[in-house]
């Protein structure tokens, strides 16, 4: 296990622009969902990704459409970073027929298989074997693809964590396991639930590299992901990356977050914000100008408004949709 | 051309034919080859599964397509789900259906639901082969018949063959089906011989087979209980009764029409299912006929099932646990109102 300092050797202007845009999309999308949910418009459970943008974006910056990701119940950020359509996502969260899953999945099951997004997942720990399976296809069909498994700290005590990583390791599959350690599994602190200091320490048990990175620093994530994905594409097997991060909102919308201290929230939301940090980095390295950043922010805001408008104007699915797509044939 | 081969050989042949036909078909499971990475072991000495059902596959298709897995069902069954969703056509072997407890999430929440949850944008052409059935003196954790669990779950298909010929053709149909199929193999049928066609052929999932025709009584029986039904039918014939024996072959989809048509003809129904009775397939088929075929019935429906207890180890107890032709006769006597039938 190593802790790596960011260097950003490979970050181009274009890549920085894409990453900043995606981080803004995730933040503004989630802030907007938070706002709409509080009005009581959205059905069901919603788990927001705001605060963790650097992880999804830093990793997905290395992926193409042939690559796969598996996600979690907190999956909006992964979807956006993997290129899912924002209109389709918002409509799905509204339960509309125009949603990415035609309103059948909702926030917890947004997927776009054609884009390699194998689904948000309502089952904690559900993604490990699923990422391994996508990695198995990539290896056997020699597609050159990698599969990234995003998971939270709550999943690292699940049996599938062990079974999935072990299987990927013995078969040397092109899989990267990315822990998003936001400190809490629902309301239970990581330190209480996990008998390890770092999730990445557990990599030693599978004889694979494990790396802890500052998950609020998109450059750090980007570089760690580059090492892991290169290793995976070279047929050297899986890596476990642990990104120490923080969720700005509660476990679910409506969570009073009594388990978080006021100081902790203040520090993360004000001082350690991943987007502010990356913005300052971009400016200090002269990758983009202030005007360009402002333009990106304005464009994203417009896109999100359009997504909400699209979702609200879309029709709900109807009775004839109820029994569709249970099977290919029955 | 047919020849006589065993149930186990028929299943083996189906997998070979499928793997020859489509290179996306792979087999994975615990010791499906056996002895992975053992230097001195030649592939022709490999186990080929604990019962030898997959013997010879690793020789023909190599260890890239016949994958031994760790004993970690959630890991490899879950992997098989997305291997299927991303372009392979895996056959995953769950050695005993009793082990589903270790990987039910992967089957129930992932394989079964991906397509629906994703609005039809995914398909999961996965076949899970698994052993079931009592009578092997294997006790409570290696003898159950848990097909009702899977039949209950939308998104899954469930196949329970009773003969070598059906096993081969239904397994081929399952492997090339685009939905997840749970394929049950009764371990006590593996040595059963039967006439089996050569070459590649399938029969559609969801089509029951009338194993014997008759006008006086319908028996619907599942898996190896089809043979209990056929024995009972022989005994009943000696008393002048013609029994129709229906083998649903697939429990999901279920061929309701064939069952209802038969009851419409005979007016009497016995269902034989060696699984436990509560919320069972026997109860489901009985409910189907009570709901949609009540007017056809001349007598109450009878279920011959295991009792509500785990499968016992001791041979004396296990024999009491399973359905028998005598139990069928007793039920027949009751619904026909002729006690002399029992004396046959």
From TrEMBL, chain A:
Domain of life from the UniProt record: Bacteria
InterPro entries: DH_E1, PDH_E1_Alpha_Subunit, THDP-binding
Domain (Dehydrogenase E1 component): residue spans on this chain: 22-318
BP GO terms, sorted: pyruvate decarboxylation to acetyl-CoA
Gene3D superfamilies: 3.40.50.970
One function term, GO molecular function aspect: pyruvate dehydrogenase (acetyl-transferring) activity
TM helices/strands, residue ranges: none
Keywords of the record: Oxidoreductase, Thiamine pyrophosphate
Any Pfam family the entry gives: E1_dh
Cofactor: thiamine diphosphate
PANTHER family, sorted: PYRUVATE DEHYDROGENASE E1 COMPONENT SUBUNIT ALPHA, PYRUVATE DEHYDROGENASE E1 COMPONENT, ALPHA SUBUNIT BACTERIAL AND ORGANELLAR
Protein name: Acetoin dehydrogenase E1 component alpha subunit
Species annotation: Parageobacillus caldoxylosilyticus NBRC 107762
From TrEMBL, chain B:
GO molecular function per UniProt: oxidoreductase activity
InterPro entries the UniProt entry points to: THDP-binding, Transketo_C/PFOR_II, Transketolase-like_Pyr-bd, Transketolase_C
Keyword Oxidoreductase tagged: yes
Domain Transketolase-like pyrimidine-binding, first and last residues per copy: 5-192
Keywords (A to Z) from UniProt: Oxidoreductase
Highest taxon of source: Bacteria
Pfam families: Transket_pyr, Transketolase_C
The name this protein goes by in its record: Acetoin dehydrogenase E1 component beta subunit
Source organism of the structure: Parageobacillus caldoxylosilyticus NBRC 107762
């Amino acid at each position: 296990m190593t802790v790596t300092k960011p260097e950003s050797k490979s970050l181009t202007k274009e890549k920085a622009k894409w990453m900043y845009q995606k981080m803004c999309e995730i933040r503004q999308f989630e802030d907007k969902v938070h706002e709409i949910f509080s009005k009581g418009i959205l059905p069901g459970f919603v788990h927001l990704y705001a605060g963790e943008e650097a992880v999804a974006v830093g990793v997905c910056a290395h992926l193409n459409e042939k690559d796969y990701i598996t996600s979690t119940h907190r999956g909006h950020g992964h979807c956006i970073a993997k290129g899912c359509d924002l209109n389709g996502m918002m409509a799905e969260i509204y339960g509309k027929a125009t949603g990415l899953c035609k309103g059948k999945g909702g926030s917890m099951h947004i997927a776009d298989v054609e884009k390699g997004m194998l689904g948000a997942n309502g089952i904690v720990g559900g993604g490990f074997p699923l990422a391994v399976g996508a990695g198995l296809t990539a290896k056997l069909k020699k597609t050159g693809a990698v599969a990234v498994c995003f998971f939270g700290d709550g999943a690292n005590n699940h049996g599938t964590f062990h079974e999935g990583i072990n299987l990927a390791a013995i078969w040397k599959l092109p899989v990267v396991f990315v822990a998003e350690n936001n400190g809490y599994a629902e309301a239970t602190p990581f330190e209480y639930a996990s008998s390890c200091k770092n999730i990445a320490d557990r990599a030693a048990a599978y004889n694979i590299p494990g790396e802890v990175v500052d998950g609020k620093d998109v450059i750090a994530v980007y570089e760690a992901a580059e090492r892991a994905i290169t290793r995976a594409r070279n047929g050297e097997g899986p890596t476990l990356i642990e990104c120490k991060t923080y969720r700005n909102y509660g476990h679910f919308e409506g969570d009073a977050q009594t388990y978080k201290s006021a100081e902790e929230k203040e520090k993360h939301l004000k001082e350690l914000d991943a987007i502010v940090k990356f913005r300052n980095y971009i400016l200090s390295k002269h990758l983009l100008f202030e005007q360009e950043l402002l333009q990106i922010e304005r464009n994203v805001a417009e896109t999100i408004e359009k997504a909400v408008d699209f979702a609200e104007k879309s029709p709900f699915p109807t009775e004839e949709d109820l029994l569709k797509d249970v099977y290919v044939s029955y | 051309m047919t020849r006589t081969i065993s149930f186990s050989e028929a299943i083996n042949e189906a997998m070979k034919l499928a793997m020859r036909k489509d290179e996306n078909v792979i087999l994975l499971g615990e010791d499906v080859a056996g002895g992975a990475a053992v230097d001195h072991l030649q592939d022709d000495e490999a186990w080929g599964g604990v019962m030898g059902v997959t013997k010879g596959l690793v020789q023909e298709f190599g260890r890239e397509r016949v994958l031994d897995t760790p004993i970690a069902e959630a890991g490899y069954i879950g992997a098989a789900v997305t291997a299927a969703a991303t372009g392979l056509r895996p056959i995953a072997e769950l050695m005993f259906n009793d082990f589903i407890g270790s990987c039910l999430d992967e089957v129930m929440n992932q394989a079964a639901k991906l397509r629906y949850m994703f609005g039809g944008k995914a398909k999961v052409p996965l076949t899970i082969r698994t052993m079931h059935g009592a009578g092997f003196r294997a006790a409570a954790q290696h003898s159950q018949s848990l097909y009702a669990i899977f039949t209950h779950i939308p998104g899954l298909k469930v196949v329970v063959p009773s003969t070598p010929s059906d096993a081969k053709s239904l397994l081929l149909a399952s492997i090339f089906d685009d939905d997840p199929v749970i394929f049950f193999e009764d371990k006590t049928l593996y040595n059963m011989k039967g006439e089996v066609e050569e070459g590649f052929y399938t029969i559609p999932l969801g089509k029951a087979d009338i194993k014997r025709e008759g006008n006086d009584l319908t028996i619907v029986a599942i898996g190896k209980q089809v043979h209990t039904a056929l024995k009972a039918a022989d005994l009943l014939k000696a008393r002048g009764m013609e029994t129709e024996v229906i083998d649903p072959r697939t429990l999901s989809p279920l061929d309701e029409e064939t069952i209802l048509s038969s009851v419409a003809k005979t007016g009497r129904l016995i269902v034989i299912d060696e699984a436990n009775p509560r919320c069972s397939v026997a109860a489901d088929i009985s409910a189907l006929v009570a709901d949609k075929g009540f007017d056809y019935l001349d007598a109450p429906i009878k279920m011959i099932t295991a009792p509500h207890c785990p499968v016992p180890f001791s041979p004396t107890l296990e024999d009491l646990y399973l359905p028998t032709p005598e139990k069928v006769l007793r039920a027949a006597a009751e619904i026909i109102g002729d006690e002399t039938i029992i004396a046959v």
